[in-house]
């Protein structure tokens, strides 16, 4: 397998958009292609990450539609659907195409336009990833699965409501430095937890998870351009290399997992990614984790190998995972504050890593970032893709 | 109308699974018989869900993952005013969702 | 006919003595302090200025809510509606949201509108609850008739309080079948839905004396979710 580099990236502002799904994906794709500055070189393949186009936007075959929109004929093209991990899965497909020499230049675009429908329909749409007979019919939603997970986690490891609030506060603060982030609002411990008014400010969504423990519903798109490492070097680009990539699956019904506080797929995917990169978690300078719910940032930080199981909240307390700490987690604001257009997220995580590694992350720049990690969490942890990127000087 | 919820028991190794899989997680076999998910067990975890999809008009829905004494686990609706991790419950069948005119039956857990 | 004053009196509704809503202050998720207080007729023009641009924003039913609220405030100012009130939420004196309604009689309240300008901080939830607090605790009414223009927004209140159907009564907002909040339901829901501290500290109350308008572009941008200041 030959080496693969990322030479272009872009994203739209996440939030509430009047643009259509195709317009959003067109915007981020053009941004990434311009950033890559390919000259005459053709795009050989396009991978599109998306979960809801058929149901929410009533459109199918969107990879072909994107090729048409961007006038990229006769490029190969496919849409990849892996629930909330669609983004990293599409990226993995793009990586494989370049590494296997099947394609030289690949465009990966993730997009979602969720606010096409109302919140109740979005909740139901996301809930469709749960097990149809064993979970969905009971009214199980993704927050419900996260709520049950959180309760067990808090009971077993001593994570408290304050710890969850710390994740939300940290990520919303980081997002204030990210012009692309959906949520641009500072929040305080007083306002969301301690004041008597907090019960209205921060109502329960799936006990013990509250409003500020859950990511928003967002529209948006993000894109990457990949090419062989050698080509990137010839083009004189700053080299951001894909050094590690891993994926693993776990049971569909959450109740079938031997230990429901373990995120086995995260652990296995991360192990594979680190093994491929020849690195340990200690050498990672920053990480974008999948905090669709604040508890997941804590749990994933442990399963990915950054902290011992049950100690992620202690690292959070000490400020280790803040922007100025030893291991900044979610410098972009994470899903919580950057937003979560489902198909776009995995790609947006990687866009952030690329910006950080290139030194282009502005006010939220992690100084001297060299190795970076991302974890894209599909289903409720039954399909996880982990990635390691490296800046090569 | 399904008035009971079933899992599958592998005819080769006896492992009970719920939900059903095509291949036995225990031995890789593919020959099963059905068994009813019923009986007593304990609450592993639970939650009160407030942000509900369209089929529900109640303020919140209480859900739980229960481990039956047989070792099989199930997700269902918890009808208990004072839930706790580890509390003993038993299964009943009730209407768990109404989609238009369709009444869907499933597992509910009540205190023992 | 008689003099101008007699004519005017023909067209003015009788006025009931309505106790003032005692101001309160609420800590929002951002840590900011929002003062909730009642307005008097002199303050109507500045509120009209804030609402006017929203009459053309179709999204989330802002256009019809703004248009109706505009008319209701004008009618309040010009003494052409019976026993109407309006409460505003102010953050550092800047208008964050407003609610209004009127008394039908001593027992029944008619809730009109809730309009949020500063989105993403549950300002609407706080102000709607303040409105119910006014009806049931200060005006001492028995029940409040409620409908809304936005179905998804209304569904939340319908389920949260919860509200009961009173379909035999046509609501003043278009004759839509009414829902009702009773005293019993209000007091049961109060601990989880109504909040705020009284009295308002003097320095905060002073800042809330004059209503400051957010810039029109900010209002529109926030309402349209472009300059999203929250989820």
Q: Helicity range of the residues of chain C? A: 25-40%
CATH class of chain C: Alpha Beta
Largest sheet of chain A: 5 strands, mixed
Total of DSSP H or I helical runs spanning 4+ residues of chain C? 8
Beta strand % of chain C: 15-25%
Q: Would you list the SSEs of chain C in sequence order as H and E?
A: HEEHHEEEHEHEEHHH
**Which range does the strand content of chain A fall in?**
15-25%
Please name the CATH topology of one domain in chain A.
Peroxisomal Thiolase, Chain A, domain 1
**Protein structure class of chain A:** alpha/beta
Span between termini of chain C: 58 Å
Unreliably modeled segments of chain A: none
What does this structure look like?
Helices cover 38% and strands 19% of the residues of chain A. Chain A is of the alpha/beta class and 393 residues long. Chain A has a domain at 4-118 and 217-234: Thiolase/Chalcone synthase (Peroxisomal Thiolase, Chain A, domain 1, 3-Layer(aba) Sandwich). The radius of gyration of chain A is 19 Å and the shape is globular. Chain B has strands at residues 6-10, 16-17, 32-36, 40-49, 61-68, 73-78, 88-99, 102-111. With 112 residues, chain B is mainly beta. In chain B, 0% of the residues lie in helices and 52% in strands. Chain B has two domains: 1-36; 38-111, OB fold (Dihydrolipoamide Acetyltransferase, E2P), CATH 2.40.50.840. In chain B, strands 4-5-6-8-7 form a five-stranded mixed β-barrel. Chain C has 231 residues and is an alpha+beta fold. Chain C is 36% helix and 23% strand. Chain C is built from eight helices and eight strands. Chain C has helices spanning 4-11, 44-51, 62-77, 123-138, 151-160, 183-193, 202-207, 216-223, and strands at 24-27, 33-38, 84-91, 94-103, 108-116, 143-146, 164-170, 177-182. Chains in contact: A-B, A-C, B-C.
